[in-house]
Amino acid sequence: MFILVNLKAYPCDPIEVAAAARDVAAASGVRIAVSPQAADIARVADTGVETWAQHVGPNGVGSHTGSTLAEPVADAGAAGTLINHSERRLRLADIDGAVRAAERAGLATCVCANNPAQIGAAAALGPDSVAVEPPELIGGDVSVATADPGIVEDAVAAAADVDESVEVYCGAGISSGADVETAGELGASGILLASGVAKADDPRAALEALVEPL
Ligand SMILES: O=C(CO)COP(=O)(O)O
């Protein structure tokens, strides 16, 4: 399983979480990445943890004030990027453009979506992975894998119908090792989570608990 820890704009210490994720990944053999704010990508990548951007846009260099370009994100040390997160939605043409821009920069891509129908559409754009995250469960206490197991299974089927090479992740409300295990049993090959680590009193202990059953 791949575990991607999205720090969103939570007031945690990104370096503390990154160092913990690096150590827990090394000790457990589980692939763990941290996705900080764009301004923290270089510092987080310097810890040695796999680092992802939370967003890149479709633009190349030019007159695009406020853009997050894929190339500087990659140059800062990111290995991949989320695209179209529930809290950073894009228009269809811009999702496509962002996937292409990320590919040109050598970034792995994960296009987020609300439901299985959107997962099929996202998979058709040819990203490396897609992630189903029901918005109503994001930030809550109940895991998507428990609250709505069918959405994960249907997302896996929808992506496979379009392109079997696209990995399927799930997220929202995941906070325990049992949640991660259940997501895997439903066919997901990775999970996205945020509050379970970023808002934990002890992020390192939270990460250790996540990988414990794997
Ligand atoms: O949006 C998410 C990850 O990208 C999920 O957030 P929570 O883990 O806080 O539900």
UniProtKB/TrEMBL annotation:
Give the originating organism.
Answer: Halobellus salinus
Please give the name of this protein.
Triosephosphate isomerase
Ranked from the top, the taxonomy reads: Archaea, Methanobacteriati, Methanobacteriota, Stenosarchaea group, Halobacteria
Q: Which family does it belong to?
A: Belongs to the triosephosphate isomerase family.
- A GO biological-process term: glycolytic process
Q: Where is the active site?
A: H85, E133
Presence of the UniProt keyword Ion transport in the record: no
Tree of life domain: Archaea
Q: What InterPro entries does this protein map onto?
A: Aldolase_TIM (IPR013785), TIM_sf (IPR035990), Triosephosphate_isomerase (IPR000652), Triosephosphate_isomerase_arc (IPR022891)
Which reactions appear under catalytic activity for this entry?
D-glyceraldehyde 3-phosphate = dihydroxyacetone phosphate
Q: What does the record give as EC number?
A: 5.3.1.1
Under Gene Ontology molecular function, one entry of this record is: triose-phosphate isomerase activity
Quaternary state and interactors? Homotetramer; dimer of dimers.
Q: In which pathway is this protein known to take part? A: Carbohydrate biosynthesis; gluconeogenesis; Carbohydrate degradation; glycolysis; D-glyceraldehyde 3-phosphate from glycerone phosphate: step 1/1
Question: What role does it play?
Answer: Involved in the gluconeogenesis. Catalyzes stereospecifically the conversion of dihydroxyacetone phosphate (DHAP) to D-glyceraldehyde-3-phosphate (G3P).
What is one term from the GO cellular component aspect held by the record?
cytoplasm
Instruction: Tell me, in one coarse class, where this protein mainly resides.
Output: cytoplasm
Q: Where does substrate bind?
A: N6, L7, K8, I138, G173, A194, S195
Q: Please state where this protein is localized.
A: Cytoplasm
Keyword list (alphabetical) reads: Cytoplasm, Gluconeogenesis, Glycolysis, Isomerase
